[in-house]
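Open question from group meeting: does this chain pack into something compact, or does most of it stay loose? Before anyone orders reagents, we agreed to write out a predicted structure and look at it together. Recording both the input and the output here so the notebook holds the full record.
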Amino acid sequence: MATNIGIMDAAYFVGRSEILAWINSTLQLNLSKVEEACSGAVHCQLMDAVHPGIVPMHKVNFDAKNEYEMIQNYKVLQDVFNKLKITKHIEVSKLVKGRPLDNLEFMQWMKRYCDSVNSGVLHNYNPLERREVRKGGREVSKKSAQSQSSTKGSNAPKSQSSHSTRRNDVSSVNAANQTANATRPSSRGNPAYDEKITELKLSIDGLEKERDFYFAKLRDIEILCQCPEIEHLPVVAAIQKILYATDDHGTVVAEAQAMLSSHQKEAEQLSPIPEVLEEKSSSETQKRKNIVNHDFDAAGITNLSPRLRLSDVSDVHCSGSPLMTY
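Structure tokens returned:
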């Protein structure tokens, strides 16, 4: 299940019109804006649709208008998330303010989650019946029914008037067609353009949010590299070379790696030669042996009798000794 999805997931590229169509068809509502669901009641009923019996619908307030009433709905939603072990964080303080981008992102996540449960298939779910006895649920259903009927009624007169104009003479029909062609871009095109502009604005807001996030990360790395304790390290110099690169070629990383390799080679060249160390250690060992032997000989000479001392000395020293000539 899609309990945690990244910010670059395909779910966050679903358009506002598609989200609204999904909400209205699933719950038999007639929302015109995503932020109209900021009270949290719609989210609770969507979870009730995919997990029947999990949501305590008697606690959901569909007539919530104040923030404290909306927060109660989100508390119910959070309890449902805890029961289902969903780790998605709910930004209640942002959602209750009715901000379009925050509500759109959370509803995009809701759609992705609901689609992942049983492939989005709802079995015998009656949204009108589930919210009928809830606070404000009946009024919401009535408003949706009235808006749908008014939409159908407004479409019927238009069709009748168009049929009556077609019965007129050819000149009037041509004039009406010309008028319709002239006014079509302004009357029918503007809503589509407005919707497209809104989607583009939301997309720009999301990209700016993502840009600011990664820029803050790079700024933290830059501040860390400027610490006096580590700013002279070669790895820090390599990182700064990548950060301050003005071109987007892939050679920057290779150059940074070459800097590290060259510094490592210089360190190896400046290190003491192992053979010199071995010679020095062997000379020190031999010196210690000579000192030990000298002390041992001195102790032996002190302890021996005078006759033995003379014999030992005659054995040790060369033939040119004064004792031997005497």
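Observations to bring back to the group:
The two ends are 110 Å apart (CA to CA).
The longest helix spans residues 189-225.
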